[in-house]
Structure formats: C-alpha cells, structure tokens
Amino acid sequence: MKSKNKKKFTRIAFILNGFLFLMNGIVLINDNQLVFGLLHLVAVIFNFGMLYNFKNFKVNESFDYIIFVLNIIICIIVAIQYIEAGKSYIQYAWFIAALFSTIALILKIKKRKIVSNSSI
Question: What is the domain range of residue 16?
Fold first, then answer.
C-alpha cells in the first residue's frame, strides 16, 4: 500500500472511531451513565486530536500506538456489550472500527520498521 493511502486509511480509522465514540458517548450520557459517556467523549477528543496531528505537528509515535490500542480495546468491549444487550446490528459497526484500527496500527508499525531499516 502506498504511503499516501496508508495515511488516508489511518485518518479514516480515527474519524470512524471518533464518530462512533461521539454517538455512543451521547447515548450513554442520555442513559444516565455519565462516567462512561464522558470517557467516550474524552476518546473523541483524542481521536480527533490525532487528525489535527496529521496536519500540524508530530507527537511521540508511542502515543499513536497507545491511542490505536485503546481504540481497539474499547471498540471490542462496546461491541460485546451490545451483543449482550441483544442489539441486532450496531455491534458490527464497532467490530469494523476495531478492525480498521487494527489494520492502521499494523500499517504504522510496518512503516516504522521500514523507516528504521532504511536509516541504518
């Protein structure tokens, strides 16, 4: 995959996660689950903050990895909660978001290995 396409894929992963966290955060706050709703809204800030990172400055690369891993974990947990609640289709959106984040993380790790090997 070309470097430009990898960046687009990573951006899509952050947008997808941010959007899902925003929707779920609002639902949780409306269901009087304030703590979990606010945690989702914090995740929205981190995900959309990573989009800002693409245009302006480079943060520590380990921070990118942490955000991806947290996105994957949270997406899978929320999907499982929806399955346990007996929902029909919403859990698939969360599994897709987890899959996107996993692929984006793998692409980022591969890019880092390629860059570090070429600088040797």
Answer: 3-113
The pTM assigned to this predicted structure is 0.76
The full DSSP string for the chain is --HHHHHHHHHHHHHHHHHHHHHHHHHHHHTT-HHHHHHHHHHHHHHHHHHHHHHS----HHHHHHHHHHHHHHHHHHHHHHHHTT-SSHHHHHHHHHHHHHHHHHHHHHHHHHHHHHT-
The number of folded domains in the chain is 1
For 46-67, how does the pLDDT look when each residue is reduced to its tens digit (9 = 90+)?
888 887 765 555 556 777 788 8
Residue 120 lies in a domain: no
pLDDT reported for residue 11: 84
Of the pLDDT bands very low, low, confident and very high (cuts 50, 70, 90), residue 8 is: confident
- Residue 53: name the closest of 68, 38, 69 by CA: 68
> Does residue 118 fall inside a structural domain?
no
Cα dihedral 92, 97, 100, 102, rounded to 10, equals -100
